[in-house]
Amino acid sequence: MKRLDLIFSERELDAILITLEKVNVPGYTVMKHATGRGPERVVTEDDEFTGLGANAHVIVFCEQELIDKMRDDIRSVLSYYGGVAYISEATPL
Amino acid sequence: MKRLDLIFSERELDAILITLEKVNVPGYTVMKHATGRGPERVVTEDDEFTGLGANAHVIVFCEQELIDKMRDDIRSVLSYYGGVAYISEATPL
Amino acid sequence: MKRLDLIFSERELDAILITLEKVNVPGYTVMKHATGRGPERVVTEDDEFTGLGANAHVIVFCEQELIDKMRDDIRSVLSYYGGVAYISEATPL
Amino acid sequence: MELNPLFSNIFAPPVLFFLIGVIAVFTKSDLEIPAPLPKLFSLYLLLAIGFKGGIEIQESGILNNQVLLTLGAAILMSLIIPLIGFFVLRIKFNVFNSAAIAAAYGSISAVTFISAESFLTSQGYQFDGYMVGALALMESPAIIVGLLLVKFAAPKDRPNSRKLHFRSILHESFLNGSVFLLLGSLVIGFLTSSFGTEAAIEKMKPFTHSLFYGAECFFLLDMGIVAAQRLPSLKKAGSFLIGFAIFMPIFNAFMGVLVARFLSLDSGNALLFVVLCASASYLAVPAAMRMTVPEARSSYYISTTLGLTFPFNIVLGIPLYMSLVNKIIP
Amino acid sequence: MELNPLFSNIFAPPVLFFLIGVIAVFTKSDLEIPAPLPKLFSLYLLLAIGFKGGIEIQESGILNNQVLLTLGAAILMSLIIPLIGFFVLRIKFNVFNSAAIAAAYGSISAVTFISAESFLTSQGYQFDGYMVGALALMESPAIIVGLLLVKFAAPKDRPNSRKLHFRSILHESFLNGSVFLLLGSLVIGFLTSSFGTEAAIEKMKPFTHSLFYGAECFFLLDMGIVAAQRLPSLKKAGSFLIGFAIFMPIFNAFMGVLVARFLSLDSGNALLFVVLCASASYLAVPAAMRMTVPEARSSYYISTTLGLTFPFNIVLGIPLYMSLVNKIIP
Amino acid sequence: MELNPLFSNIFAPPVLFFLIGVIAVFTKSDLEIPAPLPKLFSLYLLLAIGFKGGIEIQESGILNNQVLLTLGAAILMSLIIPLIGFFVLRIKFNVFNSAAIAAAYGSISAVTFISAESFLTSQGYQFDGYMVGALALMESPAIIVGLLLVKFAAPKDRPNSRKLHFRSILHESFLNGSVFLLLGSLVIGFLTSSFGTEAAIEKMKPFTHSLFYGAECFFLLDMGIVAAQRLPSLKKAGSFLIGFAIFMPIFNAFMGVLVARFLSLDSGNALLFVVLCASASYLAVPAAMRMTVPEARSSYYISTTLGLTFPFNIVLGIPLYMSLVNKIIP
Ligand SMILES: Nc1ncnc2c1ncn2[C@@H]1O[C@H](COP(=O)(O)O)[C@@H](O)[C@H]1O
Ligand SMILES: Nc1ncnc2c1ncn2[C@@H]1O[C@H](COP(=O)(O)O)[C@@H](O)[C@H]1O
Ligand SMILES: Nc1ncnc2c1ncn2[C@@H]1O[C@H](COP(=O)(O)O)[C@@H](O)[C@H]1O
Ligand code: NA
Ligand code: NA
Ligand code: NA
């Protein structure tokens, strides 16, 4: 099994979840209110005040095959709006 | 060293922590307010309003041996109440 | 690529971020309000009341080389104030 | 301007705020009241309603036959309603879901009660403080009935760890946070009024009394958002449950009004009694059920009570029940 | 003690709380108002200002020529200001950034408006409730102009998914949470005042009226913290933008005062009109722009409006505009 | 009904709410006030108490010998108490823990002070606004003493980075968020009262004055929960610390009452002075100590001050100190 970590702006959460549902992932977990900095050195803060929104960290445990299916969709969202996606190995307990 | 990721409903947090303490894990980290969806397609929201509670994401860095000791206890909680548990490799810095 | 997970008290967040910036990491993600317990069996709670502060969980995706550069700085902070740091493998999507 | 009660209820600020909350969701506005702000208002309302009720109970003197009878009848209703609901629901649902949904309808919704009080005030009716006692007493028994139904009617192969002990049933029923806060504040109001100084009560009033109506509006704005978000999952739940969420409250209201007549309550108290019967819990009961009966689908009992029964009662139910009361109570 | 308006503005509690928020950041105090508490106050202020405005509009009777003309002029200003701003900003910035910043200055800041109201009250000026209508009407048009500027002036190679549809432009403009809450509360105030009971309005007052000033102070404390935190990134943005953040409001105020004179507004309403022109949005517009024009750098439009224009208006601008009004309005 | 002070203190709403918070934890109710709602109330109380105090100081005229002497004595007490505490604690604890705990007892608890004010009001005693000045002045010196004790008494092998510089000692003492907000609000109250309009103060009152008592109750409910949660870790800390948490406040109260007599304070002010001496900080000091003396175990200083000294003072201490004052002050 793989573990896919996606980190991107909360505003794109719906778009990403739709992408995940399209390939029928077995499940996902979302953690909001993440903050951070990306390669363009823009610091995203949890600035609810202005409504700009913080980052979301989405974790998906699934098969490689599903990841291959959604790769293009996810990349297209992240390349336009920013964010990162990394895959690692994971074994069910 | 291993990294154990547990994601399950906040309501079962005490039960899981007791399980962890029973085998004397060196430590653990808990992140609450996680939301998500599982294989039964029920979306867990951070719906504090109704008091149903969101998910908790627990991370444990420990030896494989400890994981083996607590496997059954954790599985029995997760299989009844839902939730996922995955193991991956991790090296101390 | 590597994934570096740092977990430590929120109060040391600025010090850690300065360390990360010093070696010019490509980015990082911070999740606050994490709670947990370490090897000294002190439970850190999200006790905003007393202003003691919870833990922060920082994730950095970067090259091994950068991790080597910041190892000493991070270790010196964590060994004095507590906290853990683990490295694992990660592949960009 | 003189309006008929239904119309005038819709133009009351709390109902209007509820409606713009609903509209915000339907028009996909990104208006949201982030957690835990709704919790602040729900804690506040429970504290204030309990404290005020405690004072009024003390002032009116509780040892009165009609009061005791009314409180007894309230408890009785919260035991009977879930039983009836359970048998209706078993037509379509398994034991777990039936018990959990039924328990919610036996218990009460404090915000519906508050709205009924506001409605009565705006219509010029009197009502008594001890009805808050009825509110407090009706929260727990329905939970107990629900859990007992599971205990005795559920298939015998539940995992062992899940055996319900009476101890834990009582714990869930009486020590749920919102039940506890309401009861605790009631006791505090009573004690302050009995042994405290008049000045202390006066100093509480700006917080517990003056602010109440505005806070109610703010909270109902959020309730509108939450209720409307629940509607889609109610549609998925099917028409049987949708029908149940409308007709069960009306049926319960009907029973309630007959009991109220039998108790010779006057119109104001009768409406409150009816509303307690007709309303369903979306706080204490769901929390208790999710904990002790995880086999029940939480979306069923949440979306019926919160997505349909609550809005129905707030907007249409209360004036409807009022006209029922006016018909049946002489 | 009699003070000149500038001085007396600085010693008003809201401004003082704003300033200690700023000082907290500059002295590196760890004073902070954690999320979502500021949101509670910002929601509250929008709700209260809308509700109060709705009542006053209803009471004063809206169908009056001067009122309609003023509201029309307000909308016009919120269309013209972003156009002017856009051409100024294009000197240094690309289409995306120029449009986003310009839109912010066309729109308004409710808290600046509130501060101006407090200032007028403390100085003994009268003003009318319908100016809240102008406030509400000026939020959206500037967003529309900003998005249209992007639509027509932007390079043609934006990714397809990003094509702006009129539907989504309208959605962003009118259904933004804070616009929606302000408009909704305005309508509720109007309806309550028209069809509701007098008692209902009275019961709202402790929440919407009495508490208002204190809540404003609390919120401005947070605004001081947030504004001061923005200053460093404004320095990075360069002196052109810093100049823009000061001179654009003054220029807009000047246009505003001429229009106000043309409309024969009296001094109080004129100041509010001027403040609407001179203030810039840090809520509705940034949220809309970040969503629909992600190419614009959010730090540009946030740090100018929040880090400089807002403090300038609150502390110096309002008394300055008042003296302008007193000079130009007979 | 006339009650003796102890009894009547227990039936005051703030104390009752504190007690139901405690009971909620002991009965394992899931009542909780989620973060950051307690912070809202703690910020509010500091702001309101500072603002009110600032007004009263300005109104009473500060340049008065007794006032200056009292403030000086307050500062002195907050320097002496931690020194005494330190030597007592060194019997059992290392330098780091001793200094951190001692600092907490030299500093003050604003909520205990507020409770004492409520107690005085309910008992019909007078007290003066300048005592809030004493409250504000006693927060920081104890932190300084604590850090100096660590600086000079600690083993010489602390990591270099941890060398305490006077600059950072002063920063921790005076710019801690809660100290800053209290002082800032005090200054604002003073300035508003000096240079602002009467109307501004009147408009603040519903927020800072009317709401105060209710907010105090709400906050004490949470304090009850938090305090009770701390008790188990106090048990672990051992009987020496438990004894210290009870007897140190009583000893400090005794010193305080003698000083108050020497200063010829009247009963109301004397009680407040005594309560400042007897109370211990669970906000500013712990935050400063955790940052600068991480070697000290935070559970020690948190659980003693919050888990035992605070409840003791709130429930029993205040009426006890009152009778002490009545005995010793003529
Ligand atoms: N190398 C990285 N490691 C961890 N998080 C990252 C990294 N790069 C970007 N992020 C996260 O992704 C978010 C969006 O980045 P950006 O693409 O710059 O908009 C940042 O705010 C970070 O939270
Ligand atoms: N495949 C998955 N990947 C990531 N998180 C998951 C996955 N499956 C379940 N979860 C998380 O586990 C929670 C409980 O799942 P469930 O077993 O359906 O109750 C969900 O709400 C998710 O947060
Ligand atoms: N073995 C572990 N696994 C996961 N998290 C840990 C572990 N050890 C420590 N932590 C986290 O690091 C924090 C600081 O630990 P400490 O070094 O004891 O102060 C704890 O509160 C935990 O959140
Ligand atoms: Na019911
Ligand atoms: Na403007
Ligand atoms: Na003290």
Q: Determine the mean pLDDT of chain A.
A: 90
Helix-strand sequence of chain A = EHEEEHEE
Tell me the strand percentage band of chain D.
under 5%
What can be said about the biggest beta sheet of chain D?
none
CATH second-level architecture of chain D: Up-down Bundle
Number of self-contained structural domains of chain D:
1
Helicity level of chain A: 25-40%
**Amount of helix of chain D:** over 70%
Unreliable stretches of chain A (pLDDT < 50, length at least 5) are none
Biggest chain-to-chain interface with counts: D-E, 35 and 35 residues
What does this structure look like?
The complex is a heterohexamer, with three copies of chain A (93 residues) and three copies of chain D (330 residues). With 93 residues, chain A is α+β, with helices and mostly antiparallel strands. Helix content of chain A is 30%, strand content 39%. Chain A has helices at 13-22, 64-81; strands spanning 2-9, 28-37, 43-44, 55-62, 84-89, 91-92. In chain A, β2 and β3 form a beta hairpin. In chain A, α1 (13-22) packs antiparallel against α2. Chain D is globular. With 330 residues, chain D is an all-alpha fold. The model of chain D has no long low-confidence stretch (mean pLDDT 90). At the D-E interface, α2 and α11 of D face α3, α10 and α11 of E.
Q: Which descriptors apply to this entry?
A:
heterohexamer; A: 93 residues; alpha+beta; five-stranded antiparallel beta sheet; D: 330 residues; mainly alpha; Na+/H+ antiporter like fold; globular; binds adenosine monophosphate; binds sodium ion
Question: What's the quick description here?
Answer:
Chain A has 93 residues and is α+β, with helices and mostly antiparallel strands.
Topology record:
The complex is a heterohexamer, with three copies of chain A (93 residues) and three copies of chain D (330 residues).
Chain A: E1 2-9, H1 13-22, E2 28-37, E3 43-44, E4 55-62, H2 64-81, E5 84-89, E6 91-92
Antiparallel strand pairs in A: 1-4, 1-5, 2-3, 2-4
Helix pairs in contact in A: 1-2
Chain D: H1 5-10, H2 13-26, H3 37-60, H4 65-89, H5 95-106, H6 110-123, H7 131-153, H8 166-174, H9 177-195, H10 198-210, H11 212-237, H12 239-262, H13 267-278, H14 284-292, H15 298-328
One adenosine monophosphate (AMP) sits between chains B (7-8, 34, 36-40, 42, 44, 55, 82-84) and A (26-29, 59-62).
